[in-house]
Amino acid sequence: GLLKERLDNAITGQITFNNDGDRLNPIYYFKNRQPMGIVPVGYFGNKEAMVPALDISDNITWPGNINTKPKGLNIVTHLEVVTLEAKPFVHTRLRSEGGPCGTDEDKFELPCNHVNMSTNVTTEYCCWGYCMEMLREISQMVNFTYDVHISHDKTFGSFEKGYLQKDEVVKDELGC
Fold this sequence. Notes:
This protein has two domains: about 1-55, no CATH class; about 75-175, Periplasmic binding protein-like II (D-Maltodextrin-Binding Protein, domain 2, 3-Layer(aba) Sandwich). It is built from two helices and 14 strands, in the order E-E-E-E-E-E-E-E-E-E-E-H-E-E-E-H. The chain is mainly β. A hairpin with a 2-residue loop joins strand 13 (about 160) and strand 14 (about 165). The strands form four sheets. Strands 7, 8, 9, 10, 11 and 12 form a six-stranded mixed beta sheet that branches. It has a three-stranded antiparallel beta sheet with strand order 1-2-3, with no helix packed on it. The protein has helices at about 130-140, 170-175; strands at about 5-10, 15, 25, 30-35, 35-45, 55, 75-85, 90-95, 110-115, 120-125, 125-130, 145-150, 160, 165. Helices cover about 10% and strands about 40% of the residues.
């Protein structure tokens, strides 16, 4: 059925699926709210083989309703990134079941360990997918390094108005 279908001239380009039902070569558009409405300012994906995967235009309205990029400090920063398996955005596999991360030339794969907080046992995983590729591209543009780990309890955190119920990133930074 659908897995064998292929649309060559859809709005976002070619549409095809892999055997898992995930779309191949999707394109995600970045949009910016401006006084005249919402304006596309870039995309992540591969429209054509010769075009870079990430493209952001200079046509962005910045806070304060200004059109020029604010001057900032170029400070190299190292971030701890928390993730979960959420296909097709983040895929995971046990390192013991496929060898070291990054050996498959067809995908960008990186280590993302999980620590069981009850036993303090670390399980080694590899992560890949759209979010990992975007993280790599953005880190190069913004100039930061990172390590990725899987959420300790393998759930997303939540925030209720005025009360931090659970947020691992903040919890990790505060040493809680």
